[in-house]
Amino acid sequence: MLLERLDWIVIAVYGAVTVMLGVWFTRRAGGSMESFFVAGRTLPWWLAGTSIAATWFATDAPLVAASLVRQQGIFGNWLWWYEAAGIMMLVFFYSRMWRRARIITDAEFIELRYHGRPAALLRGFSAVYQGVLKNCVVMGWVMLAMVKFSKVLLGWDAGFTLGICIALAMVYTVASGLWGVVATDLLQFTTGLLGTIVLAGIVLYELGGPAEMAAQIRAVSDSPATLDIIPNPAHLTSLEAVSFFLLIFVLWTRSGQGDGYIAQRLFATRDEKQSLLSALWFSFAGIVLMTWPWIIVGLGSLVILPVATAAPELAADPELAYPMMIGEFMPAGLKGLLVASFLAAFMSTMDTHLVWGASYLVNDVYRRFMRKGGSERHYVIASRVAVIILVMLAALTAWQMDSIERGWIYVIEITAGIAIVWLLRWYWWRVNAWAEISAIAGSFFIANGFLWADLAEWAGLLSGSALQAVDTFYGSEYDMVRAVVILLTCTVIWVIVALATRPDSEEKLLSFYKRVRPGGWWGPIARQCPDVKSGVPASRQWMGWGLGLLFLWSSLLGIGYLVTGRAWAGVILLVLAGIGAIGTLRVSQMADGPHVSA
User: What is the C-alpha to C-alpha distance for residues 298 and 72, in angstroms, rounded to an integer?
Assistant: First the structure.
């Protein structure tokens, strides 16, 4: 499946344009840390939102989406569709407060919200935990996706592919910072979306259209659940059904406040309104617009590369189905476009994670604890060095990974325990740094329980039925059950810790309340600030959240029913989506109306 000369010309032209666009912004990024990491807080909503969506479309996403279809059916993609509920909370409850915070990283938020040594400890630990551990796992699976993609389409081995990945990731990120990232993300989003739509369209055409494709899938698939967009309990085991519905709770709370690169884009917008609109645009582009082309290719692979007769490599690793379909269907030139779209997806994700991770290392570790009095130029140079360090660590992580999906699950688990404390630290004055520290520690400990079990077995402390129970609990079939156990256990732990330890100083709480203007349970503090307004009423926020979900999920399901041959259901749902879209936009504009007291 090697590429032809025309394909390489297309790839070369795309690469040259991307590099020139990124390097163009080098001077703009070199003035200060604020310029390098948050683009001087000047991004318009459409550019910030597109940049988030471009990062959402990583090289791993099409491979895993197609793999989930082959293994579970369309409904397997609720593994990320459920995040729509959390993203809508970000839109209406948190996006404006992030912008008001006027910070560079979400780790910096910790010392804005909490005080003293516990806050400093938590800030430094969070910067390493999020910016290095979690970040390198994410970048590792993105690189692993490129390894799998290159193995099928280019015949490259893992070492050579990782070397190319490192070079591509650093080529302009080191120089141009966030300005270069968001500018190239716009090109990469367009290229990536166009490439995947072209492939999906060819697959539908070759299989005779949506209805004919669905009929052929029913003829070759052994599973009645393959075409289920909403899970049918009759097609699932009791454990699968329970695990699926537990996703609602885990992913909603986990993505509710937004963090990491999403929060970084919100910091970089021009004002609060632009922050809200950027999150709203990202929610549609990431959840709806980009998803279905990947799924269509996965569905088509069930006909072209049937599970029952799949090659040994594909049977062992269903994540190879997507690049194999590129080789099956794309002619010269268009195949180059698809490869360029994957490069776009890879670079848009890597550059974002590198800038985000470097912002933690420099702003929250190096400048905070090691070199406090350096010049802005010094910190920009340190930021570029941090990018190089992170890309090397990510390559080492990718070298040790073999499954993208398992990486996804692991990140869900190590962050599950901190989900609710992150939501409530904005809205409840009694949350303190020790509460958040206990949630992080508990989540990490439980998520890595299999490692502690191995150590206990080695030391002779665990054996027999107890060891078997631990092995069962950490088996893949209990992934979502385990995530909920982590979430609930850590929530109980951090609430007890919060109530058993002293609250933050009144001075710190007053400062935070006046700056961010949160709503919720701030009674003792709010009573001292009668002139501070908390923002729009909670009822209006919940209305926006509900209309936003109507818009997103009706769009998602409507397109899904259309591309699987169920036209009338699709049309009705798209009408509902239009109603939801109008209502969502109106509520988002109403957010600029009169404020109410806390």
Answer: 11
